[in-house]
Each structure stands twice: as C-alpha cells, then as structure tokens.
Amino acid sequence: MAYRGVFGAFPYAARESDSWLFRSYALVSVVVGGGLALLFAFGLVVLVAQTAAITGGSLTLSRAFYVVVGLFIVAPVIAPTLLVARRHRRQGSTRRYDAALALAGYLLVASLYVALVITIPTGQQEAPTGAFAPAVATLYALPSVAAAVPPLVSIGTIWAAHRLAR
Predict the structure, then answer these.
(1) How many structural domains is the chain composed of?
(2) What angle, 0 to 180 degrees and rounded to 10, lies between the N-to-C axes of helices 20-50 and 57-90?
(3) What are residue 103's phi and psi, to 5 degrees?
(4) Of the candidates 158, 154, 48, 31, the residue with the CA atom closest to the CA atom of residue 98
C-alpha cells in the first residue's frame, strides 16, 4: 500500500517499519517538524505585519530568505521519515536502515537544540549549573556563527546513514 504525498508518508513509514526506534522518530519528526513549520509561519506573519508599510525589493528578498531558512531547518527534520517511506515503497527496507536514520534524526533534533543554546544573546544567558554546566558554558562562549556547525554535521550524518546503511 503506497502513501499519498508528504503527509501520508509519515503514517506509512511508521506502519511499515519494524524498528521501534524509527517508529518513535516518525512521531517525533511530525511533532518537531510541525512545530518548527508553525513557528516559522507565525514568524513570517509577524515579519510581514511589521514591514507591510515599507516597499522595496530588499524587503521582499528578506521575506523570501526567511522562508528559505525555514525550509532548510524543517526539511532535514522530516527527511529521515521521508527516506524510510520511500525505501519501503520502492524496494523494501531493513530494520538496520530504519534504525540508522532514526538515530541520525534524533542527532539532528539534539543538534538544533545545541544551536539554539549557542545563539542565546549574552544578556539573556543564565549562569549554568548542574552536571551540564561546563558544556553549557562552553557553548555560551562560542560565537553565534558556530551555531550552524552542529546541524550541518548532523545533516551530513543523515546523508551518510542513508548511503551506508543499505
């Protein structure tokens, strides 16, 4: 039984997979991907409302750039689920492949959180306490540009898992 489009791929992949780890990630990818999509959609509405009176080409470019950034963040979160659904539909998949993509997907979600910690403005940072205090202090000390590294590495991990776990 094939799925119909992107939205049908999520239940299809969860239903067809034998990996419980992947089934859990399919649910997580729906929740996190949907939440991020809503966050960017609401942010775009606010951006358009704040700049509605201003006209010009650079403003249209910034709005389009906002949409592209949103796609670059949401697409990798749902990519493992879509890849597993495609693999099941076309040639059948293995539990190993499904689990590898689920682990890579969980790594991506964690890396997005790490990127958020890196980008917290200095005025809003709280003194880290607890077991993770040294790690959080290290992340706070990094420049904001470094926030792109963890998600890019985890996207590479998704690609590698897709290629190597055949």
Answers:
(1) 1
(2) 160
(3) -60, -45
(4) 158
Instruction: List all residues 6 or more positions away from 36 whose beta carbon is below 8 Å from its beta carbon.
Output: 70, 73, 74, 77
DSSP 146: G
Measured in residues, the chain has a length of 166
Q: Are 166 and 97 in contact (CB under 8 A)?
A: yes
Task: For the beta carbon of residue 43, count every other beta carbon within 10 angstroms.
Answer: 14
Q: What letter represents residue 111's amino acid? A: S
Radius of gyration, alpha carbons of the chain: 19
Cβ–Cβ < 8 Å for 85, 3: yes
d(CA 15, CA 93): 12
Per-residue pLDDT of the chain (166 residues; tens, 9 = 90+): 667 778 889 999 999 999 999 999 999 999 999 999 999 999 888 888 877 776 665 666 777 888 888 899 999 999 999 999 999 988 888 899 999 999 999 999 999 999 999 999 999 999 999 999 999 999 999 999 999 999 999 999 999 999 998 7
- Segments forming the whole domain that contains residue 64: 5-164
Look at residue 2 in the predicted model and tell me its pLDDT.
67
